């Protein structure tokens, strides 16, 4: 045991009446919701990077956190892992997620970085033998190091492309070895700062080829997990090629990959793209590419990706409404891609941020399930489109042409009047469950 989380108890469910801040008020892992345990619905994951690699910096200031594992070398990396698994145990977290750069020190070259990743992967495997926590997904950090300043797969330098491909392979190997259920690709630098030096066609072709190789390697290894792409519109690049769900789907269709790749959708990224979280989830479901979520929120006054823990009941409930409508998670889950504020210095802050986030998601899930079981929202939606079920209207959509439709409008003297969309009434209905 380390001393970092000393005197912090294991978090258990005590119910809404509890005044103990080190207890769940709404997240009861064993509570059955729509025929399934809450833990199995939500599939919580702790983000290794925000919880253990983030130093408390921002664009205008450096490290504020004092963590005993900050520093170079494998000994520090293993201490970080010890602390991480202690936190997983305190929270009883089912899963965690990581980038390679979060868990191993950077080597002098790729070979040393790979050895470091393999060593920490073996250490993780040992830790997991005595833990309930499994790996939801792994990924490669192809954006922090200066070599990736012009992208990884989209880089104009073939050697950076090659380095990126090798890094992805090593991270996929680690993910597979640890029993990970998904592998995520986020193109943090896959975009451009100016069109003056950018060949859009070439960069798209390179990105597609890298993704094709990832899919090919998955099948070569016989791995049954999901390949996920995480959209984001900008930041750090001015414009990123994985702007939103619709953009990524268009890219997948363009290169014939829509049957191989699904989406890992983040609340904060959806907001940066000008969408709501539930819009992105509903669209991914409609397109058949919904996979997993990163749960967080942005500060709506700041205009950038602040990665805060969720605390808005309506937003969370509407998100899980779409998840439940999609049939729930399969390999995916709820990853807290969220970090504590740079002034939240204490170990307790890190634990309690997750407790609050898990409780908020549990509240949202229960509200979403009750709303779905109530059925009135879906009944109103179905009623709005009910006339399309009439034979003459279904035939118009399936077999009609402009001439025939014009003749029908004239013959039947069709002169439609607008119908209410009932938005406020439906918003009131939703609010009753939240």
TrEMBL record:
One GO MF term: xylose isomerase activity
Organism per entry: Celeribacter ethanolicus
GO biological process per UniProt: D-xylose metabolic process
Signal peptide: none
Annotated positions binding Mg(2+) 2: 266, 269, 305, 307
Cofactor(s) the protein needs: Mg(2+)
Protein's name according to its UniProt entry: Xylose isomerase
KW Iron-sulfur (keyword) present: no
């Amino acid at each position: 045991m380390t001393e970092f989380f000393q005197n912090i108890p294991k978090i258990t469910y005590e119910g809404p009446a509890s005044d103990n801040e080190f207890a769940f008020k709404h997240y009861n892992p064993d509570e059955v919701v729509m025929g399934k345990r809450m833990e199995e619905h939500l599939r919580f994951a702790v983000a290794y990077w925000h919880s253990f690699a983030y130093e408390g910096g921002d664009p205008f200031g450096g490290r504020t956190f004092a963590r005993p594992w900050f520093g170079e070398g494998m000994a520090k990396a293993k201490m970080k892992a010890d602390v991480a698994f202690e936190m997983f145990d305190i929270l009883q977290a089912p899963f965690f997620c990581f980038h390679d750069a979060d868990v191993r020190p950077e080597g002098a070259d790729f070979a040393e970085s790979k050895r470091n990743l393999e060593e920490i992967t073996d250490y993780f495997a040992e830790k997991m033998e005595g833990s309930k926590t499994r790996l939801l997904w792994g990924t490669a950090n192809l954006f922090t190091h200066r070599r990736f300043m012009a992208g990884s797969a989209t880089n104009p330098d073939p050697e950076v492309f090659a380095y990126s491909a090798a890094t992805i392979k090593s991270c996929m190997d680690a993910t597979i070895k640890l029993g990970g259920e998904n592998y995520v690709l986020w193109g943090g630098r896959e975009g451009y700062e100016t069109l003056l030096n950018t060949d859009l066609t070439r960069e798209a072709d390179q990105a597609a080829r890298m993704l094709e190789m990832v899919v090919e390697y998955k099948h070569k290894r016989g791995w049954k997990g999901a390949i996920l792409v995480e959209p984001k519109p900008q930041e750090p690049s001015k414009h990123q090629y994985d702007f939103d769900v619709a953009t990524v789907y268009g890219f997948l269709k363009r290169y014939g990959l829509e049957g191989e790749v699904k989406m890992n959708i983040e609340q904060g990224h959806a907001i940066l793209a000008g969408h709501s979280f539930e819009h992105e989830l509903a669209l991914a479901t409609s397109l058949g590419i919904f996979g997993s979520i990163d749960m967080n929120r942005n500060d709506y006054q700041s205009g950038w990706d602040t990665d805060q823990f969720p605390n808005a009941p309506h937003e969370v409930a509407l998100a899980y409404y779409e998840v439940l409508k999609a049939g729930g998670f399969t390999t995916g889950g709820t990853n807290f891609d969220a970090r504590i504020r740079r002034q939240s210095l204490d170990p307790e802050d890190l634990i309690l941020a997750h407790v609050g986030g898990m409780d908020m998601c549990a509240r949202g899930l229960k509200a979403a399930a009750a709303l779905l079981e109530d059925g009135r929202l879906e009944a109103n939606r179905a009623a709005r489109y009910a006339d399309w079920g009439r034979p003459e209207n279904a035939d118009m959509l399936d077999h009609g042409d402009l001439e025939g439709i014009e003749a029908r409008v004239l013959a039947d003297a069709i002169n439609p009047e607008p119908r209410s969309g009932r938005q406020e009434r439906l918003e009131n209905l939703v609010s009753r469950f939240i």
